[in-house]
Records
---
Amino acid sequence: MAKKENILIIGAGLCGSLLALRLGQLGYAVRVMEMRPDLRKVDISAGRSINLALSDRGIKAMRLVGIQDKVEPLCIPMNGRMIHDKEGNTFLSNYSGRSYEYINSISRGDLTALLMDEAELLESVTIEFNKNCKKVDFENNTATFKDYKTQEEIKIKADVIFGADGAGSALRKSYYLEKKFLFSFSQNYLTHGYKELSILPSEKGGFKTYKNALHIWPRGNFMLIALPNLDGSFTVTLFLSYDEGQYNFNNLKNPDIVTEFFQKEFPDALELMPNLVDDFFENPTSPLGTVKCSPWHYKGNTLLVGDAAHAIVPFYGQGMNASFEDVVEFDKVLKSHKGNWEETFKTYEKSRRKDTDAIADLAIDNFFEMRDHVANPIFQGKRKLEMAFEQTFPNEYSSKYSMVTFNEDIGYHEAMTRGRAQDKAILNMIADNDIWTARDSYWEDMTKEELKETLKKVIIETEKILEEDRLAKTMHQ
Ligand SMILES: Cc1cc2nc3c(=O)[nH]c(=O)nc-3n(C[C@H](O)[C@H](O)[C@H](O)COP(=O)(O)OP(=O)(O)OC[C@H]3O[C@@H](n4cnc5c(N)ncnc54)[C@H](O)[C@@H]3O)c2cc1C
């Protein structure tokens, strides 16, 4: 049980920087090696999306390292989804019936810079840039880097190596290519990719559309979303198939067809985006995928964390939150294992995997929900009912979305299991006309007693479904 103290972290992204900060706070000597230049000094994009939705699981991690007060000023609260139809009509659907539950738009660059600044305040943490990890000898705890500035090859030995190097992880590649143990790996791409665009601030520097919402233009097989930035702009993301449908990334090849597509599908967005064509042809189109692999660790030598272990599609806004939660969960296990890294890694992976698998599946479900179901009247009716439950009986009901996004003390797996059962219960009851005597009469017409009766029915039906699921599971074991 020798205590290993020299830690090497590959990647100073969101997860690697947070992990460095936490391990530094716990007294470990931490060296972080990042492939890209220092984003605090060089004007580069922080990679992937420009801004992200930060919610309660991520905020819990900020509390763990004591920087929630510094994160708050970087956040723009988004209380709900602002849905835009083709005619430009808008409809705000709150994320929760509890007014204190909302998600936050935050700049990836600002948050990463803050985490790096905080980590570097600790004497025991150093971060080096322009060092690209080529491979990891996980038997001998040595990682090989290429220094982009000097072109030198550097070998670094550490007691423990963490791969926080994102969806294309070099540590994960070494596990896979070396074939020294049974390593399972899957990567599933969606047929859709994404492209980032922008709504610039108004001439006076204000927001051109409603600031405190995540805007969505759902169009069935594709969609546009927009999240606000502190400077008054919005980062807009188009999710579209590469090759299916009348308009797709493969055939949007000239300014006229791009403008025609937006005129037809997103006319109100186009009005706010005179810069559309420039953005469209300057910015890359990138793929979206889910990565699952196991095991995440090799003996007590190396461990994958964050997207390197479990990259997911962005439709629940949970990839970063889950990666931050990795650090919270790892921290818990680390305390109780007192220096036995192999046991620590094993215990961590055993308890964590079911939750990261669950959020991967939920994120795929939400792809369909956001681009399609949010515009569906039955779905909207269900959301309104859930909102009424949350508003009127805040301690008795949480929707699946609320459990995933705002209940940081229950795991993703539990949130998924209970949330899916609730969804099924409500949708079955709507289909059977069991909830409303008349189909069109929504919860607005109900008295508090009637709403309470409906909630009771939903809870009983949910418990029935959960019991059936438990039975089916035991029969398959
Ligand atoms: C379009 C889009 C929108 C998203 N929106 C959200 C959202 O709203 N909310 C949310 O919670 N999540 C969101 N995510 C997911 C989120 O971006 C990731 O889950 C998160 O970035 C994972 O953090 P990470 O540190 O594990 O990986 P990364 O952020 O990818 O960081 C990895 C770091 O390692 C470095 N690196 C990579 N390879 C090497 C190497 N060989 N050597 C050295 N360094 C290396 C990289 O340069 C990078 O700095 C979104 C993702 C996408 C693509």
Note: Residues 10-16, 33-36, 47-49, 52-53, 132-133, 164-166, 168, 170, 194, 237, 306-308, 314, 317-321, 323 surround flavin-adenine dinucleotide (CB under 6 Å).
---
Amino acid sequence: MPTYSPPLRDMQFVMHEVLKVTDDLKLMPQHVDTDADTINAILEEGGKFASEVAFPLNISGDAEGCTLDKTTHEVTAPKGFKQAYAQYVQGGWAALSCDPAYGGQGLPFVVNQCFYEMLNSANQAWTMYPGLSHGAYEALHAHGTDAQKALYLPKLTSGEWTGSMCLTEPHCGTDLGLLRTKAEPLADGTYSLTGNKIFISAGEHDLAANIVHLVLARLPDAPVGSKGISLFAVPKFHAAADGTLGARNGIYCGGLEHKMGIHGNSTAQMVLDGAIGTLVGQPNKGLAAMFVMMNAARLGVGNQSLGLTEVAYQNALAYAKDRIQMRSLSGTKAKDKPADPIIVHPDVRKMLLTAKAYAEGGRALGIFCGVLLDKEHSHPDEKVRADSGEMLALLTPIVKAFITDNGHISTNACMQVFGGHGFIKEWGMEQYVRDNRINMIYEGTNTIQSLDLLGRKILGNNGATLKKFGRLVAALVEEEGVNEKMGEFITPIAILGDQVTKLTTEVGFKGFQNADEVGAAAVDYLRVAGHLVFGYFWARMAQVALREIAAGNTDQFYLAKVQTARFYFAKLFPETATLMRTIRSGSKALMDTDAALA
Ligand SMILES: Cc1cc2nc3c(=O)[nH]c(=O)nc-3n(C[C@H](O)[C@H](O)[C@H](O)COP(=O)(O)OP(=O)(O)OC[C@H]3O[C@@H](n4cnc5c(N)ncnc54)[C@H](O)[C@@H]3O)c2cc1C
């Protein structure tokens, strides 16, 4: 059976020693009193909830899955999920970073980010039920009418109701411009929605009294394509203005998907049969309003894989110390045993360190993005708000795609550490591989993320935001360029920074002549950019750790950090050289292949 221990020390290291998040928070009136002790105390309690309440339901939830009663259309989540959710609500966890105007605790997003990492490690399938509510809350907070805010936000904040996002239809996932669900205006200002949605996570369940579905649909006179999509709030139960529940609305679950992983989360086919909804935001501008939810969800999906990477690593590490098999190539290490523990073998170490380096790098990036989100929402200086939003937009596809791809690599590596036992359910490792796989697909596939990064966020603004990230790298290079001890961490990112600038110009130029060149480069490009970002954070973590060591601190934590940074730059970062070669090979080997693909 797997175990999980919340990585509080590592979170504190990134928050308080590397990024010094409270320095930023102090500048925001709303967060001026949120000091390090407060953050640590909340996360300690949050870690207990994750490891003691959500984690014990992970394997049982996977085995049992969700059940649909076809006569009532009600879905029952696995045993214990409802009780755990009640504890979550009672503990006030749903309200952590919500607006006090709606009953929230108003704590920084970055605290919620770390809390959710732990929940995802503990039980991704369970975590998706409350997780989707956050995106629905954000979209309604940003674009809802006063009446919608008054009705929905207090209920989402308390956790009494949950949210869902209803975009996908059988014939359209990536290309939402094709969607067909119709919304007919009614005399009272509401809308009657008809259509079919599929793959709706937490679309139906028994955890909460009501579900607020955010649904994309078309008005009768809507232009074709993505410019004709509107957003609607459609509750499972009608509700009076004071939140009192009324009759069932015409939106219900027609079936549940049988799937590879996240079995404990219901993936619902939703039928809208004259469901009554209210318009969120402007007519035909629904995609823009939904993007608030989608961006929150993309950061959330990266956090899902971060959580899975961490828990898989913890278990693989413990197993590698315990399992004895063969002798070390360089001579016996455990003389008292008939064989050495497998952790002596170089490749086992490589697998473990891969997961560790990707988890800790992902955590640094995730926390950095959490602070950007806080600055975007709460910083008093308008320019800081705008710059933070721009940087977050650049990093969002990297969080979503790079961390989830790394989660795939890492959970597989950790399963491999267990040999055949990793493939056997009892150890829990194969579940992490299965659960992680969807993270590369939903919320816009990782290919779509890479097109968003390269096409829209980088080439679309002539690399302006990328240059801003480049300036962060340049400042670190400037600061540490003459420090011999930092050379092994600084030189690679300085070189890669220059290479990425050149590469971007080349791809942009080729893309002008043939847009398929951008499509051919994008996925590899995102990985290169991901390493530039991770390399920057690994260099910053090494910088802090080396300073502590130089000051005489003998805490092994710092030595471990330097060793992991060394591993990252020696064994993972260099894949950028191959990726840059494949990017430069262009689109021809893909597009001139009609005979091969005939
Ligand atoms: C378990 C699960 C939970 C989900 N939860 C939700 C949810 O809560 N709400 C919701 O609305 N949806 C949800 N989805 C749907 C999910 O977001 C979509 O499956 C995803 O966006 C991809 O859409 P698709 O499956 O239609 O694939 P398609 O869009 O048909 O794509 C097929 C392939 O073509 C590629 N492709 C498509 N267009 C391009 C392009 N322009 N360039 C390059 N490659 C391209 C894709 O990357 C992909 O590899 C969920 C799906 C699953 C499986």
Note: The chain has a mean pLDDT of 97.
